[in-house]
Amino acid sequence: MTKSNKAVFYILILVIIGLIAAIVFLSVTPQPMDKFTEFYLLNQDGKASGYPAEIVAGQPASLITGIINHEGAPVTYRIQIQANGAIINSIETGTVLNDQKWEHQVDFSINSTGDNQTVKFYLYMNKEALPHIKDPLTLVTNVISPK
DSSP readout, the chain? Predict the structure, then answer.
């Protein structure tokens, strides 16, 4: 073997060793996870449809609110419900562990009657001042007078 062939041979051996080391490193290094929170509303039957199209002014309406924590750590959430620009209910979840689901019935009432009123559900995380999810979940409903 000539000197130049030996040099090429050793370079190829080093490249192969480097590739093997890179493959081993990438296979044992944990991949970064996407961190996110699932936030959803369900009707009283636990379905993501058939939300109340009409509620009675001053009387409680109920929905099931759900959160699934995929943030990679325990989190405390707060759900703030707003209608007509006013806070009408606020719910603290307590600590929700990573990959844990929190699902509870939440009640709210609206005192003013009118069609197409918007009820907004904001999600806050760990006592933050701004919502964790920028766009709130929204329910549009008609509010009728009590009979």
Answer: --HHHHHHHHHHHHHHHHHHHHHHHHHHSPPPPPPEEEEEEE-TTS-SS---SEEETTS-EEEEEEEEEESSS-EEEEEEEEETTEEEEEEEEEEE-TT-EEEEEEEE---S-EEEEEEEEEEEETT-SS-SSSSPEEEEEEEE---
